[in-house]
Write a structure and sequence with these properties.
Organism: Tropilaelaps mercedesae
Order of helices and strands: EEHEEEEEEE
Pfam family, one: Ribosomal_S27
Shape: rod-shaped
Helix content: under 10%
CATH architecture of the largest domain: Roll
Radius of gyration: 39 Å
CATH class of the largest domain: Alpha Beta
CATH topology of the largest domain: Ubiquitin-like (UB roll)
Oligomer: single chain
Protein name: Ubiquitin-40S ribosomal protein S27a-like
Distance between the termini: 79 Å
Family: In the C-terminal section; belongs to the eukaryotic ribosomal protein eS31 family.
Strand content: 15-25%
Number of strands: 9
GO biological process, one term: translation
């Protein structure tokens, strides 16, 4: 029976008996490709094939396609979890200020209203500037 084996270089055609074992197919691949049997991994329908299994047992029939991959050595060790020494940074929580408008205006005993903050000349009325120690700053304007 004919089998297709998909290798790294391309798909190759192999003639084997229908009662053959997977190890017989691997030996044929070694003869044709030169890849040692112990380095070969054959899979069919996503499942790895053991050397002792027969082709009929794994339902491999005429014109089936087997995939050949190579065994790889090693693999990295599992890394140890990093132990952080500094505490996590707390996110800023916005504080809701009740009657926040009272920061911007002052009402006298006579009922006269005075502004406590300067208004921005560029942004217009209703936009107040932040009062720092050395300057006034409008946060709405982007320089």
């Amino acid at each position: 029976m004919q089998l297709f084996v998909k290798t790294l270089e391309g798909t190759k055609l192999f003639n084997v008996q229908s009662s053959a074992l997977v190890s017989d197919v691997k030996a044929a691949v070694q003869a044709k490709e030169g890849i040692p049997v112990e380095d070969q991994l054959l899979s069919f329908n996503g499942y790895l094939l053991e050397d002792t299994a027969s082709l009929a047992e794994k339902r491999i029939f005429e014109d089936s396609c087997l995939h050949l991959s190579l065994r790889l050595l090693g693999g990295a060790k599992k890394r140890k979890k990093k132990n952080y020494t500094t505490p996590k940074k707390n996110k800023h929580k916005k504080k809701k200020v009740k009657l926040a408008v009272l920061k911007f205006y002052k009402v006298d005993d006579t009922g006269k209203i005075t502004r406590l903050r300067r208004e921005c000349n560029d942004c217009g009325a209703g936009v107040f500037m932040a009062a720092h120690q050395s300057r006034h700053y409008c946060g709405r304007l982007i320089n």
